Each structure stands twice: as C-alpha cells, then as structure tokens.
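Q: My labmate handed me this sequence with no annotations at all. I'd like to see what the chain might look like in three dimensions before we decide whether it's worth expressing. Could you predict it?
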Amino acid sequence: MKIIPIIIPSPKTGKKPIIHESAYIAPTSVIIGDVTIGEHSNIWFGAVLRGDWGQIKIGKNTSIQENVTIHIEMGTYVTIGSNCVIGHHAMIHGPTEIMDGCLVGIGSNVLHNTKMNEGSMIASGAVITNKEVPPRQLWAGVPAKFLKDFPENEEFIAQKTANDYIINGQAYREFFRKNPEFAKF
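A: Here is what I predict for the chain of 185 residues:
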C-alpha cells in the first residue's frame, strides 16, 4: 500500500480541494474540502488543512510545514498570501488573514480574527488572537505583543525561506518519482 496524501471533498459541503499542479503535497498530509493551494506552494508531512467548514486559500510559493494545522470556524475562512512560511507545528484557526511575505514561527498559534499584514512575523511559540499586526513587525510572547519593526529596505524574512522550500519540494517530488519504493509501507 502506498503512502499518499489524503485529499478529499468536504463531507459537509462536497467542495473539493483545488491544488496547482506545481505545488508539492507530501505523503501523510491531509487536505479536505474548500482548500485552494497556489503554484509552487508546498504542504509538508503531517500537515492538516481542513476546509470542511469554510474556505482556506494558500497563495503562491508558500510553505506549510510539518504538522501544521489549519482550520476555521463554521462559515469563515483562512487566507494565507504568497511567499509565506508557516513553521512546523503551528496552528492557524480562522477566521484569519495572513498577507504576503509573512512568517509564522514554529509552534505558534494564530487564532480567531487575527490579521498579519505584509512582511510581519509571529515568533516561535507565540499565541495571538483578535489582533492586527502592522506590516513588517515582529510580535512575540503569550499573548503576543509588539517586539520590533523590520527595516523598510530589508527583504521579507519569509521570502528566502519560502524560495528554499520551493526547491526542497521539487527535490522531494523528483525523489518519490524516481524511488517509488520509499512511498510504500
């Protein structure tokens, strides 16, 4: 039996995931329902994107890393822009909006009614809810609070990491294509 991602329609709404052909979807990830994944984005091992109660949109070149969970309240949405990195073990629970070039740190929680504006960052382990993070700011702590501004002339932190994960996703896709025996129990 092959290890493959679970990609199914929502049992509640019947809506099916829409995944760009250039996206990398790792074995053991789960994508359910009204989920759209943009070109060159990558969904890593153990990630769960559950669009059974509402809509999840992932932009281009975005990395959803291992064991990330993305879910929403009934009838709401999660939007994650392009060139973002959602770090390992993060929880995103909507309604939430994460704009282009954002980084959500490892093990952090971005919860209800939070908006992260372009180039903002939530530090590892932080918890944020019901806040709007201005562009190019770092927030940290539990609950998350403003820590510092990023310089205007500095490249978005997430941009280089997102590009690295595009290359990594392509390498994994090619590895499993050439070595199908590793995609089996």
